[in-house]
Amino acid sequence: MKYGRLMAVVAALMFLPMLVGAETGADLWLRYSKLPESMATGYRKEAKSLVVTGNDATQQAAAGEIRMALRSLLGTTPTLSKGVADGSIVLATSSDKIVKDLIPGGLELSDDEAYVIRTVSVKKGKAILIAGRTTTGILYGTFDLLRRMQNGEDISNLDINEQPAYKLRLLNHWDNLNGTVERGYAGHSIFWNREESFEQLKDQYLTYARANASVGINGTVLNNVNASPEVLNTENLERVKQLADLFRPYNIKVYLAVNFASPAVLGGLDTADPLDENVQQWWRDKAAEIYKMIPDFGGFLVKANSEGQPGPMDFGRTHQDGANMLAGVLKPHNGVVMWRAFVYEPTNSDRAMQAYNEFMPFDGKFADNVIVQVKNGPVDFQPREPFSPLFGAMQKTPLMVEFQITLEYLGHSNQLAYLATMWKEVLDADTWALGAGSSVARATDGSLFGNELTAIAGVANIGRDINWCGHDLLQSNWYAFGRLAWNHQLSSEQIAEEWIRMTFTNDDSFVSTLEEVMMRSREAVVSYMTPMGLHHLMGWDHHYGPEPWTDLSWARADWLPRYYHRAGEDGIGFDRSSKGSNAVSQYFSPLREMYDNPATCPENLLLWFHHLPWDYRLASGKTLWDALVYKYYEGVEQARFFQKEWDKLEGKIDQERFEAIRYKFKQQTKEAIWWRDACVLYFQTFSKRPIPAELERPVHDLDELKSLKFDLKHHN
Ligand code: BDP
């Protein structure tokens, strides 16, 4: 058989389960599975006909979605109608005449993405109006109404007004042009190096676009921040254009991560100095080429002078010079520059202080279409970090939070960590920049400092796996990121509940059981990996599994766990107090003082800010050593609890996803024990104190754990 034919057969077989109706997770939370009759009957009365006022592609996408969804949810498709009657759903923009007829006095919407959903009186009954200032609002409102129906909510008397918290709500894909995904654990890139034709991939891309639109994600960076200059060659830009065209009706703009050395590497110039006229001209020409193909191209994301990436400092220039040069190039096209603040140098004594030190001097000096993209914590995407002190401190520069949806440091796609709780912890954290109530959310959404340009980004966990995320339950993080980017005041519980009902079932006991597991999941991971403010204890390169002992003579100190945990006979933890690196000074009062004093420092960040003796007494009366050991054990108990709770749910959902998830929970428990034993036994070599007698004995011994090699199979 020819290779091409063989691949076609293989592909057909892969999709066979979908054809015979097996649950693969491919439809994400847009499954629209048939609602129980008790719910469907009521909804049918509210959805007898559909009135669509225009032909624009976005409005048509909304109309197509609602018809398809209702057919599936209710078993009936609303008839298309020109006139509004009892039971109509009306999709209109606020300037359409129909809206003025339905709402005396008309509608005022302040934002192009805002929408209302209203129950309005019509002759002999009532109708549902979904209206936006633009058709984008209609699309978002449509997904909102569908979500309510999937959740079994009452839709008989609606009065909903929504607008997004952030203007740009972006996924960042760390996808390489060769098809691999940096820190991706769900298969290869959905965008790059594909064998299938674009036509063949269209359905998958449409699902991607619909899923994003359903939660309000309105932009996507298609390639890795460690960017290949080649992404800007004409062939690759053609692919970018194809994606942009397909995503446009769903209000998703495309962006690219660019390599700062592109003018030299791709353009053949002898420099990439941002102040060089030829370099600037190269970027101007490139931008012109891009915008000719993609008039609404979003802009550039730049990782410069970080982890070996080129940047303006290679030419004696600054972040300000580099970012503003690109901003000037993109300005005439309305593009933005997202300039990352993820920087750290081996020479610095505390990596956690670097981004602040390096970026604060430029506050107020960036062009108005530059936004500085800051990871949520000062080091990296650890299971728990305090928020980056740049939030609140850089007041004259728009900042955006970068979260990581992919679980690089939290068990890849093998463990469940529902991250809404972690993101809420960061967004709700009070920076005290302008006194109490200066949360990270408010410091970035424009409400505190009045910045016009607002954004938020999440590093995607998406790959070619049939269920997109490698673990069915981790789809929830993609969903949750979008929901919080739209409205950071939603609760983690609400988001989890919505997602569970849409993705699995409305069975209340299933929903409450899984919701509880999800709500506890991130804290469980923190407990068995890095409790009490510990961080960076994982294998230094793959970032999977515990290796707190790693010592490599040739490696940079700040790559290695020992730099961070500093365990010794005298105790454990990184002293960032005023007696140590003084990283606490980067926070506003009263946080600074609170963190500085071990007695007032929150226990869950204690070893982030302090180096303390093993017998240090905590408020609970426990010694530090005992408390730490208990935390590790508690994490394992949580993982066991998840496994047991999940097992109880058998029969409540399809067997395919049930089994796949059951397997993941089993693996998670094994790995939780691996983490616990490795960390407890290793730290015990310094503490020389016993594991409290009432706790079970470790399953592994330290030498065995040290010789255990990371198994690449875990990756996908
Ligand atoms: C680190 C990742 C690395 C990324 C880097 C970044 O390990 O793969 O390139 O962050 O965000 O956490 O630039």
UniProtKB/TrEMBL annotation:
Domain Glycosyl hydrolase family 67 C-terminal: 469-694
GO molecular function term, any single one: alpha-glucuronidase activity
EC primary class: hydrolase
Family: Belongs to the glycosyl hydrolase 67 family.
Documented EC number(s): 3.2.1.131
List of catalytic residues: 307 (proton donor), 380 (proton acceptor), 408 (proton acceptor)
A GO-annotated cellular component: extracellular region
Protein species of origin: Xiashengella succiniciproducens
Signal sequence bounds: 1-22
Pfam families: Glyco_hydro_67C, Glyco_hydro_67M, Glyco_hydro_67N
Source taxonomy: Bacteria, Pseudomonadati, Bacteroidota, Bacteroidia, Marinilabiliales
Catalyses which reaction(s): Hydrolysis of (1->2)-alpha-D-(4-O-methyl)glucuronosyl links in the main chain of hardwood xylans
Keywords from the named record: Carbohydrate metabolism, Glycosidase, Hydrolase, Polysaccharide degradation, Signal, Xylan degradation
Protein name: Xylan alpha-1,2-glucuronidase
Domain Glycosyl hydrolase family 67 catalytic, residue spans: 149-468
Subunit composition and interactions: Homodimer.
